[in-house]
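Hey Z.,

So I finally got round to the FE2/S2 (inorganic) cluster thing we talked about over coffee. Here's the setup:
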Amino acid sequence: MPIYSEKVMEHFMNPRNVGEIEDPDGIGEVGNPVCGDVMTFYIKVKDNRLADVKFKTFGCGAAIAVSSMVSEMAIGKTLDEAKKITPKLVADELDGLPKNKFHCSNLGAQALNKAIDNYRKKQAKRGKK
Ligand code: FES
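And the result:
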């Protein structure tokens, strides 16, 4: 059993922002083929800021804690600021993750990133019409 920090346990037991956003502005889904875990992030954007972020994670305890932390870190940030949330920053905010669980924090940052890219792509398409 890996040893988790108290913060990881706390976010795992009481994850924030779980769920789905109806009519999201962007969606990002990532999976890890090795562990089979899947994470989906939904974002709502207002004035270039993340007005809301929700997620659904089918994964290990660390993946759930990471998703919860990423959502908390991202809400209220501009899209460019949110893109700078790295797996390392997420792990640091959680007071560290066991080495073999570091890929879980990669998933969180990637899923948020993908959701932002998805939003930007949609915007670009709209602009062309
Ligand atoms: Fe795969 Fe945690 S074990 S996301």
